[in-house]
Amino acid sequence: MNIEVTIFLLRLLAGLCLAGFLLALFAIIWRNAGAAVYQPAAAGAMHGYLVCEQPALAGDALRCSLRPIVTLGRAEGNTVVIRDDFASANHARIVLEGGKWWLEDRGSRNGTQLNGETILRRTILTGGDEIGIGKYRYRLHLNQEHMTM
């Protein structure tokens, strides 16, 4: 095979790789375009709370109302402050986005569990899910309310 044919084939391969990359990028942007649109009805329709189930607390269990962003960790500025050496200062967060609740690990050293499994990327939450951070377990309760105008 001469050098001109080799260069042509390499250019063709590079062009195909570029086209594939652009197609994949377009598909990702297209799929996530709906999540970026603010939807007031969806944002106001979901309400719920977290209940700390383990370790059992003396008296009533800790109950935290869900806000559009709930942070969990050892640092005092978090929505839910966790008194556990296995929790990072800014361990995880729960986010309402696109009408769905998401769980994100914020680069914690010991990981965040969802229903007993360590999450590796942002994950959609559903009612009844159990979030584990260190020795603590939180049960997620979601209520669907329909807004009337």
Q: Could you explain the architecture of this structure?
A:
With 149 residues, the chain is an alpha+beta fold. The chain folds into 2 domains: 3-36; 40-144, Tumour Suppressor Smad4 (Sandwich), CATH 2.60.200. The chain is 24% helix and 34% strand. It is built from 2 helices and 11 strands. Strands 2-1-11-10-7-8 form a 6-stranded antiparallel sheet. A 5-stranded mixed sheet has the order 4-3-5-6-9, with no helix packed on it. It is elongated, with a radius of gyration of 22 Å. The model is unreliable at 34-46 (pLDDT under 50).
Brief digest:
By secondary structure, this protein is of the alpha+beta class.
In the CATH hierarchy, the third-tier topology of the largest domain is known as: Tumour Suppressor Smad4
- How much helical structure, as a percent, in the residues? 10-25%
Sketch the major β-sheet. 6 strands, antiparallel
CATH architecture descriptor of the largest domain: Sandwich
Structural category is alpha+beta
Q: How many distinct domains?
A: 2
Query: Radius of gyration, rounded?
Result: 22 Å
| Terminal-residue CA separation | 73 Å
Strand order of the largest sheet: 2-1-11-10-7-8
Low-confidence stretches: 34-46
Order of helices and strands: HHEEEEEEEEEEE
DSSP strand content: 25-35%
H/I helix tally: 2
Query: What is the subunit organization of this protein?
Result: single chain
- Mean pLDDT over the full residue set: 83
Q: For the record, what CATH class of the largest domain applies?
A: Mainly Beta
- The dominant shape is elongated
User: Number of DSSP strands?
Assistant: 11
